[in-house]
Design a protein that fits this description.
The chain is α+β, with helices and mostly antiparallel strands. It is built from five helices and three strands, in the order βααββααα.
């Protein structure tokens, strides 16, 4: 059966064993339409079932590697941290 949040990135992501998934594949596919479903084998993550739309989004994000590279470069920059209140003010969020 599902175990919500067990060792997954998103705590709301349902988790189930591979053997349960085999016997309940239609339900797994239905759940994957709205959320990722983690499949475990021997208590370890073995796979994640996602909808085709979510898969396409993830692939597109990977192909847009410049976004990831820019984020990594920004995190690697030396210098003092900017307080959250100052960042919000700079973005006009206050």
């Amino acid at each position: 059966m599902y175990k919500a949040g067990a060792r997954s990135y998103n705590p709301a992501m349902p988790v189930m064993s591979v053997s349960d998934a085999r016997s309940r594949l239609p339900q797994v596919i239905e759940s994957a339409k709205t959320e990722e479903v983690v499949l475990e084998r021997h208590g370890r993550r073995a796979a994640v079932v996602v909808s085709p739309e979510r898969y396409d989004e993830l692939i597109e994000a990977l192909e847009d590697g410049h976004d990831i590279a820019a984020s990594d470069a920004a995190l690697a920059e030396e210098g003092p941290n900017i307080p959250w209140e100052a960042a919000k003010a700079d973005l006009g969020w206050q």
